[in-house]
Amino acid sequence: MSEPVFVGVDVGASRTKVAVLDKNKEIIGHSVRKSGTDFEKTAELALDEALKMAGLSREDIGFCVSTGYGRKNVPFSEFTKTEIGCHAKGAFHYFPMAITIIDIGGQDNKIIKLDEAGHRLSFKMNRKCAAGTGAFLEEMSMRLDIPLEEMDELARQSENLVELGSYCTVFSATEVLEKIRQGKKVPDIVKGLFLSVIKRVLEMDSLTDRVVMTGGVVEHNPYLVEMVRERTGLEVMVPERPQLTGAVGAALYAMDAAAASEK
Amino acid sequence: MLAKKESLRKEIAATKTLKKIMANHFYELDEAARTGSKKVAWCTSVGPAELLRGMGFLVYFPENHGAMLGATRMATELIPYANAIGYSPDICSYLTSDIGSYLQKKTPLTKAYNIESVPRPDVLVFNTNQCRDVQDWFTWYGREFGVPVVGIHTHRDIGRIRDYQIKDIAKQIEDLIPPLEEVTGEKFDMDRFKEAVALSRQCSILWRRCLEAAAAIPSPWTFFDATIHMGPAVVARGTKEAVDYYELLLEELTQRVKDGTAAVEGERYRLYWEGMPIWGKLRSLSELFASLQTCIVASTYCNSWIFDQLDPDEPFESMARAYTELFIVRDEAYKEEYIKSCFEFFKLHGIIFHDAKTCPNNSNNRYGMPERLSKKLGIPTLTINGDLNDLRCYSEEQAKTNIEAFIEQLEEE
After folding, report:
1. ipTM at complex level
2. Among B374, B393, B404, whose Cβ lies nearest the Cβ of A128?
3. Domain membership of residue B322 as a residue range
4. Buried b / exposed e across B163-184, counting CB within 10 Å, b at 16+?
5. B1–A contact, CB cutoff 8 A
């Protein structure tokens, strides 16, 4: 058996992410799959995929921690941590300083504040509503019949952003239809959708000087980050693979637990 | 790290007696309403119960019924019937679930006590010290049953309480006597009234001491226990039974403190619950906190039935004071100071605010208080979105994640 590795599994409402870290905290394997309805099976498949990428097998796992909504559905994890804890841990790993983390997930948003030592000062999750989350963009892509992966490029082409006023995803859809009837251009509407996501997030909490954005929505729509920079005037940083931040955080907890068990 | 072991809270032996008192309360009301043996007054939970008892009424509390609708999870199914007749889903879900229950002729009293319906009122008596909704709620029933609705209109957002406010409320209480005499057909008896005030005061003092027992480390009981054991302080204050009950409960809690008995095994964290209970989720929340070895030791909610200002020598003025000095009637500065004093007394690690969708008056997170208190006290706060009765406003998974993340935060401090 080679040196043990540390695995984080983040079973989110939309996607399941696995990160495999070596002892130097480098990602040597990863996987992202749709969570679907069988969380256990998805977690197993994602783990196998990530291990395969690292050229390893399950015997090489030193410790495994699961997180996300389906965190209790991962039979091979030693213990669970919340996604709030894991995003904090993961983001601080990349940016070890006082930060505000904005995580935009498939069905929820989080704002987490850390001090310069990485201690959590506060956190907030979106209220019980999917407005401003990935689900909102998914719904709109379906309504507008635009593939999700094309939204970022379309938003960048906007010359005259269309602002949406509504709070609610369903009402926003009606508002979008109205804009289409008015002859507004699709890129301008898509940029308006992005702005709607940003507004929902920024009204959740205040921000500190340095912001880190994580989550799948940011990974697939990097233009959102540029828009947040522009809107807030703050330094906004993004880890290399923002969608994996929670899984990386979980793997780091796994590493801590392994170290503690050796003591 | 998340504790894997499920450690449930310890049951309280006095619960048996509690159940008997609550059952007798409803049987007595049911019998009176069916036979007309006694007059029945409906009263808001922090309304002038002492006056009503002193005038010989049996007193029924619709909010208690509301809480039962919530706890039995009947509320979410019944609320839409009230919505459909024009009572918005955004207003008090005690009101909407109770009216829905009446419209559908379904009550938790049937399953619990084999009682067909809530007791028909002879009069409805409110105090708006909690909110305006209670008045609208009672007015609906007043129209439905064709009986009088009388009440007290409280001053709101009070910082320092002024004499003119007390005089006003005392006069309003006194002014209730003539219309109530018309219902009873009997002359008001001052001695009987004073006796009810004296008993209510005794009940309050004992209830306060029960709640204060939670200052012990480990705490002998939890907020979840107290939400159940507060029953007699709500529905039977002003009676000897309530006094006897809290003597019994206090004895048990005192013994637990002496023995070092923890309600939550391995208590690690002590939290405060601000706002309404989420009635339909009491058990699951209680189990979740217990599994995290966290005890909710105190709450504004349970403390709201402490009326030890009551004084039989000055019955009207002291009632006015007791029902005006309540937390819910006060301004933000007072509320902050109050929670700060609880933080010190109960030795808390954090505060949970429940933002109840349909209860703005008793959701104190909405004007920046969690942020201010967190800064002032140097402890974290958490806001959970939910509701007292309408579980459509509550996301269990999200609440769970928030609570677990909050405990993780305490662990990492």
Report:
1. 0.89
2. B393
3. 194-412
4. eebbebbbebbbebbeebeebb
5. yes
